[in-house]
Amino acid sequence: MSLDLLTYIFIGGSFALYIAIAIWARAGSTKEFYIAGGGVPPVANGMATAADWMSAASFISLAGIVSFIGRDGAAYLMGWTGGYVLLAMLLAPYLRKFGKFTVPDFVGDRYYSSTARTIAVICTIVISFTYVAGQMRGVGIVFSRYLHVDITTGVVVGMIIVFFYAVLGGMKGITYTQVAQYCVLILAFMVPAIFLSMQVTGHILPQTGLGATLDSGKTVLTTLNELSVELGFDQYTQGNKTTIDMFFMTAALMCGTAGLPHVIVRFFTVPRVKDARISAGWALIFIAILYTTVPAVAGFGRVNLIETINGADSNGVEYTQMPSWFKNWEESGLIAWVDKNGDGKVYYSAGNAFEGGKPVFVEGVGDSGERLTSNATANASEVYVDRDIMVLANPEIANLPDWVIALVAAGAVAAALSTAAGLLLVISTSISHDLMKRTINPSISDKQELRYARMAAIVAILIAGYFGINPPGFVAQVVALAFGLAASSVFPVIIMGIFSTRMNTQGAVSGMVVGLASTIAYIVYFKFMGGTADQWWFGISPEGFGTVGMILNFVVAMLVSSVTPPPPAEIQAIIEDIRIPRGAAEAHVH
Amino acid sequence: MSAQNESARSYWRENLRIIMTYMVIWFAASYGCGILFVDELDQIQFFGFPLGFWFAQQGAIYVFIGLIWAYVFSMNRLDEKYDVHE
């Protein structure tokens, strides 16, 4: 069977499964639409949370990032998992006890202020849109590479599928679809990883395989270090970023994770407060299966990549001898080669092969049949390899069977769709519930609110699809912004709302405004206005600045609240109440 | 009423103490072993990994899982003790 046919079967089969689940789990009420009726078992919720959380970025890009930056990739590995400890201990149980639908619900009620609610709504929508654009793009890339349809068709198909289960099923449909998507994506990630690990080291577990000793008598990591140094890179197991930047970046990603609205809302869907803690535990186990495998995939992938391109003797391999994956990805523009020394051999080493990092393709082919480019640099490196192809190309680089490649394609689509659906739901809830019901027109009925929610979901899908087809150049840059915003606004304001009875409207609003303004200003200055790395405050990169924004938020909020009146007695009673688990079920009945 | 309040307060105090304890471990495993002291720990070999590198890319995540489940069990016990379980 051809690879194309297999890919159609795997992706088509998984889509049929998602649609069947969506029809089975239709939502009838706003409560089912927003939080699945509050009756999702913790294991299922943990799995759904894991699928929701692991986006195209985790599935496709993370191993690529780690593969190319080595030890510093730990900021993402620890940052995107450590946030769940914060969620389990500092946020989830209390928000579940509070028993409403959304993050702005909590912020608005706890701080008895529609200003605070509105700021929270804006943050929620900005964060979620930032994210969703990247997901649709991920779907498009997979479709165009494996099914040979253009990216537009890929995005439209993805939109229709998400439309089906997000708009019909709401949170209930999404949750059960995500359980299926988790199974597809984890299988798709683990199968090639286990194959790779067996092939390179003989270990079944990639986690231990990365530490294995090869036939040469050296460990995988030593081999990797030697290869890297030989080609002029830094040692793989050495860091390149400064300690302070690693520290702040990891903290921003952790606190940002704990403050992401689409993650928090998952903990509203379980029946009891203790289930909120338990589902955080399950979620992290399911996430960790992938995240602890990532370093192995990154390491093996890099060894394989270097050895395939440079050959056993490290002198390069003739372009005409390159395997088909090399040419396929070159066709997609994610690999490029320029024959700088005219020997017809492909050679990969440290330094950018092209000016500005990315190749600029021009019409025509070179002497060996390669695509021509116009911006080669003067150094010895002749190859550009896009980080994003590591996971997708790994099975091909390692010569794994075709069905594994098809499975990986289906897994990448599952990762992108599950996250997109969760985000779309958060956007539509923010509009129908937080804006329409709670702010603009409180008198609308449950039915009308549900209709608004579905309309908002449709509009959100169309906007997301538009960004997927016409991706703004700044998608990669704004991801830093999404985590920065969550860390500097949503996260501190919720923490103070739970752990301080003294925190009042004035403190929360001024804290959020200062946190947001400083973080946005720093990121915009360094990402869009040409700020350079030597101007960073204390060497803190824009990715890490969310931590500074968060600290400013805490400090300003404390100062302002200490000179303004304490919150009214009934608010203090609410805080006392959310700290005690008992009574969560009753609080939920309408 | 005031007895109930007193019990709620001491439940909360015990909860905060548990959280603090676990947060210290959380910090030590990730920021401590994975970032601040990573180069020192890298001198030690651990199943083929430099130890600091292992903490940064795998070990911290295992500790996180352990912490959440420890918190689940600690809190279930605490909820029973103060009779606030569901």
Layout: helices, strands, pairs:
The complex is a heterodimer of chains A (590) and B (86).
Chain A (H helix, E strand, L loop, with lengths): L2 H22 L5 H6 L6 H12 L2 H14 L4 H25 L4 H8 L3 H33 L4 H51 L4 H4 L10 H11 L12 H16 L2 H4 L8 H19 L2 H17 L6 E2 L5 H8 L3 E3 L7 E2 L14 E5 L5 E3 L9 E3 L4 H8 L4 H39 L5 H24 L5 H25 L5 H24 L16 H18 L6 H10 L5 H5 L2
Antiparallel strand pairs in A: 1-3, 2-6, 4-5
Helix pairs in contact in A: 1-8, 1-17, 3-8, 3-13, 4-14, 4-17, 5-11, 5-13, 6-7, 6-19, 7-8, 7-17, 7-18, 7-19, 8-14, 8-17, 8-18, 10-14, 11-19, 11-21, 14-16, 16-17, 17-18, 19-20, 19-21, 20-21
Chain B lengths: L1 H35 L1 H4 L3 E2 L2 E2 H31 L5
Antiparallel strand pairs in B: 1-2
Helix pairs in contact in B: 1-3
Structure described in brief:
The complex is a heterodimer of chains A (590) and B (86). With 590 residues, chain A is mostly helical. Chain A is 68% helix and 3% strand.
Extended strand count of chain B:
2
Unreliably modeled segments of chain A: 586-590
Q: Hey, roughly how much beta strand do the residues of chain B contain? A: under 5%
Distance between the termini of chain B: 20 Å
Read across the widest sheet of chain A, the strand sequence of neighbours is 1-3
Mean pLDDT of chain B, nearest integer? 92
